[in-house]
Structure formats: C-alpha cells, structure tokens
Design goal:
Blueprint: H1 3-14, E1 18-23, H2 25-38, H3 46-49, E2 50-54, H4 55-71, E3 79-83, H5 90-99, E4 103-106, H6 113-122, E5 125-130, H7 135-139, E6 150-153, E7 163-164, H8 165-170, E8 186-191, E9 201-205, H9 206-220, E10 227-230, H10 237-249, E11 252-256, H11 261-270, E12 275-278, H12 280-292, E13 307-311, H13 317-326, E14 331-338, E15 343-348, E16 362-363, E17 368-372, E18 385-390, E19 397-398, H14 402-408, E20 409-410, E21 413-422, E22 428-433, E23 438-440, E24 443-445, H15 447-454, E25 460-470, E26 474-483, H16 491-497, E27 509-512, H17 525-533, H18 537-544
Parallel strand pairs: 1-11, 3-4, 3-5, 5-6, 6-7, 10-11, 10-12, 12-13, 13-14, 26-27
Antiparallel strand pairs: 1-2, 8-9, 9-19, 14-15, 15-16, 17-18, 18-21, 20-21, 21-22, 23-24, 25-26
C-alpha cells in the first residue's frame, strides 16, 4: 500500500467524519478586543476562526489538485513545490501532488526570496503552489527561474503572475486520476533545516512515507477515536509524520495556527484533543503560564488528553518532571529523527519508559541503531560515538549531491552527525551534534550536557551553550541564557550554580540574551556564534568548529 491509498480508504470507510480542522485563534482574539474597546457587537465568523473538512472532502480536494496538475501539463515525476502557512488547504494539496505521481517539495515558510529561489532550483521544481503570505517574495524571483512553468496561488486576489488555484481546482474532477504509482517511486523532497547554511534536498520514496505511518502508529497506538493537535509547520517532517499515525487509522487532526499556551489548551479543550506533540519552548511556555497564574487549568476540559510527546531537540529531564506535576496522568514519549530518516521515530523513548527520561530511547519499530567510531564500527556501551540508524525511512539520497550522500550513507546506515552513547540497558543518550563539540585545552565539552544542567535552574527559561575562540585554550564554553519572564539573575549566581560541575565543563562566560530557535525548535547556534564572535573572529570560529 502507498500513502495515498490510505486517504482513499479513509474517504471510503469514514467519508462523513471530520478529518481536518483549522483553527486561527488570532481572529477571535482580535474580534473580542474590538468588541471590548469599542463596545460594538461583532459576530465572530466561524468560517474564519474554525474551518473543517470531512474525509470525503479531503480526498475529493486532493483528487482535484491531481487533476489540475494533469490539465496543466505536469507529468508523473515532475517536482511541485508547496509554500504555504499551515492551513486547511495544505494537506489536500500535498496529497494531490502525490496522487498524480509527482514529487512534492514542501518549502520552509521562513525562507527569504533568495533561499526560495535556491531551493526551487536545487529541487528542479516545475511548479509552485503558494499562499498570500509569500506574494512579495515570489514577485522578486518568479521571472528568474525559467524551469518553473506554473505558479498557482491559494487565496483571494490572485497576483497577476500566477493562476488561481481555487478557481482552477473547482472546475476539476473529484475522482482520482489513473496513474500507476509504485512504492519505490520518488515521492517527496524535504530540505534540511539549514541551520548551518543553505539546506540540502532530501529525496524520499513512497515506501519511505508509508513506513513513517506504520512506525508512528505502532509507537503510540492511535485509534480512530484519537484527535491529534498539530502545531508545528507542515513543511517539516516532524509534524506530519506524527499525524501520519492518526491518519493511518482515520483519526481527526486539528491544525492550530498559533502557539500561545491559552490557544493550545483551548484547542485541546474545545476539540477534545487526545494527543499533542510539542516543542520544548511551547511546553515551557505552558508551564510558565500555569505557574505564573496566567493560565488556570480548571478553566479547560483536559481529561481526554492522554499523550504529550516531544521531539526535534534534546529534552531537559527537569522539564518533564515539571510537566508531570501538573499533568500526572499523561503518558509521555520522546521522539528522535531527522528529515533524512523521514522524520521522528527511528529512535524513541517509548511511553512505557518514562523512568528513562533524559534518553532519546531505543530503536523505533522496524529500525536499527548503533553508536559508531570514526571508522564506522560500533563502540562499547558507555562510550561516545556517532549515532547511525538503519530502517525503511532512510532517504534515497541528497538530491543532486552524490558527495554529501556518500558522506552519510554507508552500507544502508545513515550517519546522523549526532554524538551519543548507550547505557547498559540499550538506551541511547544524545551527547551533542558532532560539529558542536567544544574542544577546550584538549578536553571535549558537549554543550547539551551543560544545557541540561542549566535547565534545572528555577530562573532559566532557555539556554544555549556555544564555543567561543580563546587564544590560550582554543575555545571556551559560553552560556547564552534566556530568563523566565519576571525573573532576575546575575552572572555570579549562575557561576555559583555551576560550581558542582567538573571544572572543565563550567561555562567560562555567561550572556543573558534571547535564545533563537527555528520553526522546528532547534537552537540556531550559528546566529549566536556570529553575534558573539564578532568581526574577523567569525571566520576563525567557523574554521575552529569545523562547520
């Protein structure tokens, strides 16, 4: 079975059930503010605040997208890019491209015009389907990419250089096109996060996409009665592939456009959400809002919410201890993955293993993992090496980049670039990114270990540890610390807090600043290095960190 057949099955079996809900809390918030300030009676349009479609409608819209591509000369194997914010149209567009046998190319909504152009050219995209938020960016580049034949606009007031997706699809058939697609056909190109430069294009097959559905459902045992809250951007593998577990069994998903704690809890309450996947900053924000009194849990109906899981970055054990204080009945899981491994699940903690919080876990369903030395051979338990994974979701290649592919794919193993170790029970602990290791006077310092320790400080909301050039030792560890709202702290207090660490692990410099993260929650350490190395030291630091 390929993943598009799952959609057809859901439409056939559960056609009248709701499949997707889109909620835009900002619309209601603005309307309520207007009512309070101007004493005007305003009706909040449900079709603006909340939209939904059934499984039959989802499938029909995907078929219309596929038939639109056919009518406009797109062929099987052609690349069709998506550049949209999370919305109700996103997934039908995605599945429509797959149904036609074209290769779907999801794009990061934070890309600049030049990054968009770069990724469209790298992926050899033939068409782009985009939303209103990107008109100004596309306007500056659309006539500079001759390969792209079609620009389809999703929304009102279509710009002159594009065609209206809504108008064109409304005239297309709602039945599936007759296209033969095999499991090993190319299906999707995702892009690496690009936190260290321009991203790489990651090519996956239909078999790879389907494997993520099976792995996720096996891990979390979703049923059709479950409701999944999707907050992260759909262009990234993390959000969609966790939803794929619910998708496989016909469970409803809610797309929430916003990350305020109040919005998340209200969506869980109103939509009877049972499963929520969070990033670390959002979980921290929820806890901070509860502890400050801004959010009162008794105002929400949360009894049905049984699973909270986190991925995309190392999870401080102190965060989960805080979480269980307020949500003692929640099952919890940590999920590890890369876009190169079709997102989360190649390693996961497992909801039965909360006693091992701090580990990323054990190999996922249908996956293998090893900790390898520089020659690619397994190290002994307890020793640090590079994490490598093998399984059905490993990418086919970095598209048009054989050298980069060869560097990470060896005998079916994907070498992740993450340094890790394995305990006596077989649980894997992330140590750090290979490229982020700080070498201070010949000692290897792993920033994640220091970050986990500092997260235990009551005043710290977020922290990033980076290496800064030092003439004497090569590098020193610097901690960039973001304090919780209303909290104060001094450098001396942080240094005293760190005094229990081995001397070589203690940060030598403390900087109070905001910790930048990308949309998938990863700390953007290159930005911090550039900011705090300064001037000519930037080049020296880049060389020093072997980026």
């Amino acid at each position: 079975m390929i993943i598009t057949e799952v959609l057809s099955k859901n439409a056939r079996l559960y056609g009248n059930d709701v499949s997707l809900v889109e909620i835009t809390p900002e619309i209601r918030e603005k309307s309520e503010k207007t009512w309070r300030e101007f004493e005007l009676v305003e009706t909040i349009s449900d079709t603006r605040y909340r939209r939904e479609i059934t499984w039959s409608e989802f499938d029909a819209k995907a078929n219309q997208t596929a038939n639109l591509l056919s009518s406009r000369g797109i062929k099987k194997g052609d690349k069709v890019a998506i550049l949209m914010m999370n919305c109700l149209e996103w997934l039908p567009v995605y599945f429509g491209i797959l149904k036609y046998g074209s290769v779907v190319v999801p794009m990061n909504y934070r890309y600049t015009a030049e990054e968009i152009k770069y990724c469209l050219e790298l992926s050899e995209a033939d068409a782009l389907i985009f939303g209103p938020e990107f008109i100004s960016r596309i306007e500056t580049i659309y006539d500079k990419i001759p390969r792209i034949r079609l620009y389809h606009f999703v929304g009102d007031d279509c710009p002159p250089f594009a065609e209206s997706y809504n108008d064109l699809t409304s005239a297309c058939r709602k039945t599936a096109p007759e296209v033969s697609i095999s499991e090993e056909d190319d299906a999707a190109i995702y892009f690496s996060s690009g936190t260290t430069g321009f991203p790489k294009a990651i090519l996956h097959t239909h078999s790879s996409l389907m494997s993520s559905c099976i792995t996720e459902q096996r891990h979390h045992k979703q049923t059709r009665k479950d409701c999944f809250l999707c907050i992260p951007p759909l262009y990234h593998t993390g959000a969609k592939m966790h939803w794929f577990g619910s998708f496989l069994v016909g469970g409803k998903a809610v797309l929430l456009r916003g990350v305020k704690p109040e919005w998340i809890l209200k969506a869980v309450s109103d939509e009877k959400v049972t499963i929520v996947w969070l990033l670390v900053p959002w979980a921290q924000d929820i806890l901070d809002a509860i502890e400050s009194g801004r959010v009162k849990l008794e105002n929400y109906n949360l009894e049905q919410w049984w699973l909270m899981h986190i991925g995309a970055q190392p999870v401080p054990p102190s965060l989960i201890r805080r979480w269980k204080k307020y949500f003692p009945n929640h099952r919890y899981d940590t999920n590890y993955g890369l876009s190169e491994s079709i997102g989360p699940g190649c390693v996961h903690l497992g909801i039965e293993n909360i006693h091992k919080v701090g580990a990323i876990g054990i190999p996922g369903y249908n996956w293998e993992a090893m900790i390898a030395d520089e020659s690619g051979k397994p190290v002994h338990k307890g020793q640090v090496g590079e994490l490598a994974v093998k399984g059905p979701g490993v990418m086919k290649c970095y598209y048009r980049d054989p050298k980069a592919t060869e560097a990470v794919l060896r005998d079916g193993w994907l070498f992740t670039g993450d340094m890790a170790c394995m305990d006596e029970d077989g649980f894997i602990y992330l140590v750090d990114r290979k490229k982020d290791v700080i070498i201070c006077g010949g000692e290897n310092i792993y920033p994640v270990q220091i970050e986990d320790f500092l997260h235990g400080h009551d005043s710290i909301k977020d922290v990033a540890v980076i290496g800064l050039p030092d003439k004497r030792t090569g590098e020193i560890a610097a901690a960039i610390i973001e304090l919780k709202p209303g909290c104060t702290c001094t450098e001396e207090e942080i240094m005293e807090f760190c005094s229990v660490l081995p001397r070589y692990k203690r940060p030598r410099r403390i900087i109070f600043d905001k910790v930048p993260r990308n949309p998938t929650g990863k700390i953007e350490k290159p930005k911090l290095r550039e900011k705090y190395c300064g001037g000519s030291l930037v080049a020296a630091q880049i060389e020093l960190m072997n980026l």
